[in-house]
Amino acid sequence: FKMFPEAEVKFIWLGRNPLASVNGLYDGWLYDRGFYSHNMKGRTILDIKGYSDTYEWSKWWWNFDLPPGWEEYTQAKLQEVCLFQWYTANLTIEEWLSHNWIWTMSRLSVRYEDLITDRVGTIKEISSYLRISYPSLVEDAPIVQATEPPSLGRWKKRKQMLIPLLFDSAPDKLELCNRMGYDPSDVEVWK
């Protein structure tokens, strides 16, 4: 900010139902056209239950984030890896925001669920916040980086796995859900 002292900095924080996020990661790990981020060949062999047993190459390719502590998950269940990735990403964002004065300047919190239920209204809200004209082309924007078209409640196809996963995890994960505005006691009505 020393280079541009007059710059106006704005932040947009996009939040999403924690179990929908974990489910999206789960789908992405299993997507055969992949989100392969880290080739671990020569470094370690992945033995992630529900993933490494699907394709030969899945013993080498780690998907998405590679946060500190990932080594402890090379022999975990896929859903545990996905919960770990969701938690570490969101905790890192939360910690960064709480320790950086710039976050207090100007921010807008947006929920993924609002983008799905009211795309136009949410984009107009973002445009207004940024003081830019509404980009009507977003109404027909193609869906990219998705394993299937976005929809609310998709995570519920795995709710028998995901709800116990969340509630059987360490309390810090439930606390993060609360801080993000997702009350775990209302998990059955999460979108």
UniProtKB/TrEMBL annotation:
Gene3D superfamilies: P-loop containing nucleotide triphosphate hydrolases. InterPro entries: P-loop_NTPase. This is Sulfotransferase domain-containing protein. It comes from marine sediment metagenome.
